[in-house]
Amino acid sequence: MLASRLNALRLQLEPHFLFNALNTISSEVTTNPNLARDMIGDLGALLRQSLDCKDRTEITLAQELSLLEHYLSIQRIRFGDRMEIGIDIEPETLSILVPSMLLQPLVENAIRHGIEGRLSGGKVMVSAWRAGDQLQIRVLDNGVGLPPNWRMDASTGLGVRVARERLAALYPDLGEQGFVIRRREGGGTEVAMSVPVHSVGGDEA
């Protein structure tokens, strides 16, 4: 039952991502076909890796970051110097298992809602470290921030809702602290996630 629910949530997510990625590429086809060709190459590589992981609820953090990198390559081409991406991952966390396609929709949200509308662009940072028996993951941006009356329980964003529901289904013992979105002091948004430490074969990383 749990596997069916998680698969249904993931199926909601992937068409949403693909639609947004194709929209991004189509905007460049006429004005910059070479750029569009490079973006299609990265999208193809991402989709191939995603298909390789489609039967697995969890993958290693290293695999998840590889998926994310293909998405980021598309966005780096698109935004150029307007966007800075930072990745700060403790090497010992790379074998820890995380839900597949967890990071990409959250980074996409940070870019679309935090950075995209700003002429000056901005920065997105993804970090991960181990704290005791949990993996701590953060997605930060210095964009426009959350609307004044924003509440997570009233959010209509698909990426946020699916990520929250998948984490809650996989790791119910973490409760509400497993997925938190908050305003950053000085501007921007922080997504904070916790995942129990376990690795391939069931051993701790």
Helix content: 40-55%
Order of helices and strands: HHEHEEHEEHEE
Low-confidence regions: none
Report how far the terminal alpha carbons are from each other. Answer: 28 Å
Net shape: globular
Lateral arrangement of strands in the main beta sheet: 2-4-5-7-6
DSSP, total strands: 7
* Structural class by helix and strand composition: alpha+beta
Average pLDDT, to the nearest integer? 84
Number of helices: 5
Major β-sheet profile:
5 strands, mixed
Radius of gyration: 17 Å
Name the beta content range.
15-25%
Strand and helix layout:
Blueprint: H1 2-29, H2 33-52, E1 58-60, H3 61-79, E2 83-89, E3 97-99, H4 103-115, E4 122-131, E5 134-141, H5 158-170, E6 179-183, E7 189-196
Parallel strand pairs: 2-4
Antiparallel strand pairs: 1-3, 4-5, 5-7, 6-7
Helix pairs in contact: 1-2, 1-5, 2-3
Give a written overview of the molecule.
The chain contains five helices and seven strands. With 205 residues, it is α+β, with helices and mostly antiparallel strands. A five-stranded mixed sheet has the order 2-4-5-7-6. A two-stranded antiparallel ribbon has the order 1-3. Strand 6 and strand 7 form a beta hairpin. Helix 1 packs antiparallel against helix 2 and helix 2 runs antiparallel to helix 3. The mean pLDDT is 84.
Condensed summary:
By secondary structure, the protein is an alpha+beta fold. It has 5 helices and 7 strands; from the N terminus they run H-H-E-H-E-E-H-E-E-H-E-E. A hairpin with a 5-residue loop joins strand 6 (179-183) and strand 7.
